[in-house]
Amino acid sequence: MEHSTYFISPEELQEIAELAGIPYETEINETESEELLEEFEEEFEAEEDEEAENASKFLIHKLGEIAFSMDGEAFSRFVSTHRERISEAAEANPDVARLLVLGFKLGISEGNASCMNDLGYMYYMGNFVDQDYPKAAELYEMAMENGCYQSILNLGYMYEHGRLGFPDYAQAYHFYSLAVALNPTYNALFKMGDMYARGRGVKQNKRIAMALWERSLAKASSTVEKSQPSFRIAQAIEADDWEDYGVERDLICALKLYQKAEIGMRVEINNWQNYYADRLQEAIKGQERVRALIESEM
């Protein structure tokens, strides 16, 4: 599929204008778009209590104006900041979802990597578009080529879990290791730790896995970010082969980590990341098991 498939067409530009009820203008520079975004943020919060229909129209209008600022980064940031509210509006009004797609396509036409990654995520999740893994992968590759680190991880995840036909652990390891080399974020580190723990695409080494998870937890800066490495470390402490990870059998520590993981996953699910629902239940059951072990040792 040609990358131009994701570029905005003149007809789609006109569609944005019609949906948003605004004229199409391109004479807005980057500085002005930042000022525009700040203005929109203030207006957006002020309109939060409007009736659903009016709020939806207001949202469509603002999305259209931000898209026409020709600053894809501003559009992507606005959507990310107000993801929950936009998602709720899109569920009720298909015009919101359509404007999301068109806004990302306009950003892609301007070469914005965040818009490439975000539209890829929409196709990956099937959020307001038909789920399409090949399109998601192509958009992630475009984003990677344009400097988006998150898209490298996204590609690794797709290959690890066989979203393009069957699991390819060698490719998954390739992308995860590339992500760690270029930008060792907390999520790149814990995904690389997973590969070592399971022996996927690399020789199994649980001590290296633990070291990567601990680095991930140290780099995590929020409750949400800490949830995944906390969960993995808690599982390792609880496991029958805990000595292979080079850790102490500290069940109180494991319980605290499972609790930390539960809180972060609940926040994720509240932010529409519903694919963490099963892991949330695992964290809750992990707490029950660890409490039983602690009581049996008392």
Description:
- There is one protein chain.
- The protein is mainly alpha-helical and 298 residues long.
- It contains 15 helices and no strands.
- The radius of gyration is 22 Å and the shape is elongated.
SSE topology sketch:
Blueprint (H helix, E strand, L loop, with lengths): L9 H11 L9 H17 L5 H16 L4 H10 L1 H10 L1 H16 L3 H13 L7 H13 L3 H12 L8 H14 L3 H13 L7 H14 L3 H16 L12 H20 L6 H21 L1
Structure summarized in a few sentences:
This protein is an all-alpha fold.
The succession of helices and strands, N to C, reads HHHHHHHHHHHHHHH
Summarize model confidence as the mean pLDDT.
89
Q: What is the number of helical segments per DSSP (H or I, 4+ residues)? A: 15
Number of distinct beta strands: 0
Query: What fraction strand?
Result: under 5%
The shape is elongated
Q: How far apart are the termini?
A: 63 Å
- Derived from helix and strand composition plus strand pairing, the structural class reads mainly alpha
Helical residues, percent: over 70%
Radius of gyration, rounded?
A: 22 Å
Q: What low-confidence regions span 5 or more consecutive residues with pLDDT below 50? A: 27-31
Sheet having the most strands: none
